[in-house]
Specification:
The protein is an alpha/beta fold. The protein has helices at about 10-15, 55-60, 80-100, 135-150, 175, 180-190, 230-240, 245-250, and strands spanning about 5, 25-30, 45, 65-70, 105-110, 155-160, 165, 175-180, 200-205. It is about 30% helix and about 15% strand. The longest helix is centred in the N-terminal third of the chain and has 21 residues, at about 80-100.
Length: about 260
């Protein structure tokens, strides 16, 4: 690619992936409402509020790929989620439609299905069961991406990220973890595939205790290599296992299933 746009580049995942992505495109256009520091020679920094339609249209212009990590990534007030995750995503897709429909990787979430139990093994045909307003916003995002694919041919990979970080932080993440290296290889697969469509892809490494089946996306050629199992002994030594009836042990969404709805006042 000549120019890859990365929204949410100042977030935790954006910061982790930024140095890893420099070989994927000639130029990385980094965007966020938070500070992004100094641009490297292969980078452009373009601050942008996703809720500002005109700014988003300028942001997308000239890009031939979009890694959309932007938006609210935790449970929060609906007004914040509305601006960044709903209105902001609509603005992004309208901008993409106006600028030759660059391929998108949309960072969806496992919280679209958070109320499935951990003893259930599911694939992408399972109905959504969001565990909060954040999860609902990702359900909206997947539906919006599907609409723009069906109506306009806009290709998007809907990646339901589990827990993408250096290593799992609790026992639940032994099932949901995705390494940075596996995410990088997934991003590369998404943007080099001759045909993408609009697939849902579970964003997890090759974990022994995974709950989600990615067989339907095998055509992309993505083969995650890491496995959270190597961290099990370390977690067992550091953390007490949660009680069997705790949310962290019962539901795939973990603690999100118990988080309150935040009031606006």
């Amino acid at each position: 690619m000549k120019r890859l746009l990365i929204t949410g580049a100042a977030g935790g995942l954006g910061r982790a992936m930024r140095p890893r992505l420099k070989g994927l495109a000639e130029t990385l256009r980094l965007s966020d409402i938070a500070g992004l520091g100094r641009a490297e020679p292969h980078e452009e920094i373009v601050p942008c509020d996703l809720g500002d339609a005109n700014a988003v249209h300028k942001l997308v212009e000239g890009c031939d790929g979009i890694l959309h990590l932007g938006g609210i990534s935790v449970e929060d007030k609906f007004s914040k989620i509305l601006n960044a995750n709903l209105l902001g995503l609509y603005n992004l897709y309208e901008a993409a439609r106006a600028h030759e429909k660059p391929r998108v990787l949309f960072a969806s979430s496992n919280h679209t299905v958070g109320f499935y139990r951990q003893d259930q093994h599911i694939d992408v045909t399972a109905p959504m069961r969001p565990d909060g307003l954040y999860g609902v916003s990702k359900c909206f995002g997947e539906a919006l991406a599907r609409l723009y694919f069906e109506k306009f041919g806009q290709e998007t990979a809907l990646v339901r990220i589990g827990s993408c970080m250096e290593k799992p932080k609790n026992h639940r993440m032994l099932s949901t973890w995705m390494s940075y290296d596996d995410f990088l290889s997934l991003i590369a697969c998404v943007f080099r595939a001759p045909m993408l469509g609009c697939p849902i892809i579970w964003g997890i490494s090759d974990n022994d205790s995974r709950w989600w089946d990615n067989a339907h996306a095998a055509y992309l050629g993505w083969r995650p290599r890491d496995n959270a199992e190597r961290f099990r002994a370390e977690l067992d030594a550091q953390l007490e296992r949660p009680a069997p009836d705790a949310a962290l042990s019962r539901y795939q969404g973990g603690q999100f299933t118990e988080d309150p709805i935040f009031p606006e006042t």
